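Hi support team,

I've been running sequence recovery on a batch of backbones for a student project. Most finish fine, but this one hangs at about 90% for roughly twenty minutes before it completes. I'm not sure whether the input is malformed or the queue is just slow. I've pasted the structure tokens below so you can try to reproduce it. Let me know if you need the job ID as well.

Thanks,
M.K.
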């Protein structure tokens, strides 16, 4: 009895899924680098009113097209507005748009896909044919058409990107439900009389969270890039909004002579998108058992 008790005391306690996740994610050095970029941009966005040396809309024509200097660390645009200040406030817009679109698209798509996969029959057939209609068009072209029909503005650009993004989550959620609803724990829940809402909420949604989380991390970067692209061609945010796509659009005519007008907002867009993509790669490696090393 004493030997068994001592052996049991030497057995390490089982680690929780959360601790295992953080341990595995901590080994993903590239993902940690991406997370560092995201945290840095988030801090810059939150502290923009403190860190920005100028008001992002303040114009000083005497500083028009000034190169990087002590007065304007990243230079000034054609209206004499400080590029650093506009970049910092632009980080707020880009991160907020990414979160808004991904939240709206993921919730809508997950609910539609989960219902279609769980209900089956003609519900499944009808809802999936609707998603197929969205997949039939190139996403950027469809977003441009929707944004153009609604009118050029940042809000309408967010709606357009969300409309073309939610079918991805619907397909993903449906596939997960079709697999999970045949599992033993779901059959057991049916056997004890659990309601459909309880089964979806307690058994299906938690088990489909991992692939949805990975998809959302990738879509954050895609959304930031898409909204910036719509703003660049005039369908998204409008001047003088300090948005990265608008800044690149305003500086494109000076790209050969005043490089800082487009270089810094382009680098900010590149780093933010790369950060979310790196985190998505890390999450995929950690959460997908087939990819664990």
């Amino acid at each position: 009895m004493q030997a068994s008790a001592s052996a049991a005391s030497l057995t390490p306690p089982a680690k929780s899924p959360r601790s295992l996740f953080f341990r595995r994610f901590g080994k993903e050095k590239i993902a940690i680098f991406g997370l560092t970029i995201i945290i840095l941009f988030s801090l810059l966005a939150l502290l923009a009113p403190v860190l920005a040396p100028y008001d992002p809309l303040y114009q000083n024509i005497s500083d028009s097209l000034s190169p990087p200097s002590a007065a304007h660390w990243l230079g000034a645009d054609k209206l004499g507005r400080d590029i650093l200040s506009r970049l910092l406030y632009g980080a707020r817009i880009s991160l907020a748009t990414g979160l808004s679109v991904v939240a709206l698209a993921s919730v809508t798509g997950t609910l539609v896909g989960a219902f279609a996969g769980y209900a089956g029959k003609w519900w499944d057939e009808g809802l999936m044919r609707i998603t197929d209609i969205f997949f039939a068009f190139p996403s950027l072209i469809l977003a441009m058409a929707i944004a153009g029909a609604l009118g050029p503005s940042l809000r309408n650009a967010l709606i357009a990107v969300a409309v073309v993004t939610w079918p991805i989550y619907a397909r993903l959620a449906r596939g997960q439900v079709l697999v999970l609803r045949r599992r033993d724990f779901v059959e057991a829940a049916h056997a004890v009389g659990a309601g459909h809402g309880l089964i979806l909420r307690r058994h299906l949604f938690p088990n489909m969270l991992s692939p949805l989380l990975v998809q959302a991390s990738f879509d954050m970067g895609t959304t930031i890039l898409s909204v910036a692209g719509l703003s660049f061609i005039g369908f998204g945010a409008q001047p003088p909004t300090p948005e990265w796509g608008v800044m690149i659009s305003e500086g494109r005519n000076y790209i050969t002579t005043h490089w800082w007008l487009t270089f810094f907002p382009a680098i900010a867009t590149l780093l933010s998108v790369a950060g979310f993509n790196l985190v998505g790669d890390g999450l995929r490696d950690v959460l997908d058992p087939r990819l664990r090393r």
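--
Follow-up from support: It reproduced on our side and the slowdown came from queue contention, not your input. The chain is about 70% helix and 0% strand. No action needed from you.
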